[in-house]
Amino acid sequence: MKKTLLFLLVLLLIFSSQAAEAHPGRTDSSGGHTCRTNCGKWGLSSGEYHTHNGGLSFSDDVEYPDDEGSSYVEVPEMTQEQLEETYASLIKAGRDIGYKHGVYCILRMPRIAA
Known about the structure:
Elements: H1 2-16, E1 32-34, E2 49-51, E3 63-65, E4 71-73, H2 80-92, E5 96-100, E6 103-108
Antiparallel strand pairs: 1-2, 3-4, 5-6
């Protein structure tokens, strides 16, 4: 009886465990970082800055530079609250945000030091 109970307990523990997934890399004060290694494994592009708190994630591949050196980035529709959080996280991450031609844009895209 004890062996059966022990066996069932071991089976229960084996099948009830869950795998935890994490990523290699520290986050900045905004909860984000630039992906440098194994980016594809996490569904990211190399050099992509992303946050882990529901903020904006973007890749340098989707920039639209204009003749004045600014970069426009496609972003999803956001609520005002999401927009304000994203704006604050980009400013904290060292991004230079501006307003040109009726839209917000990233004026300079400095690389964030890891």
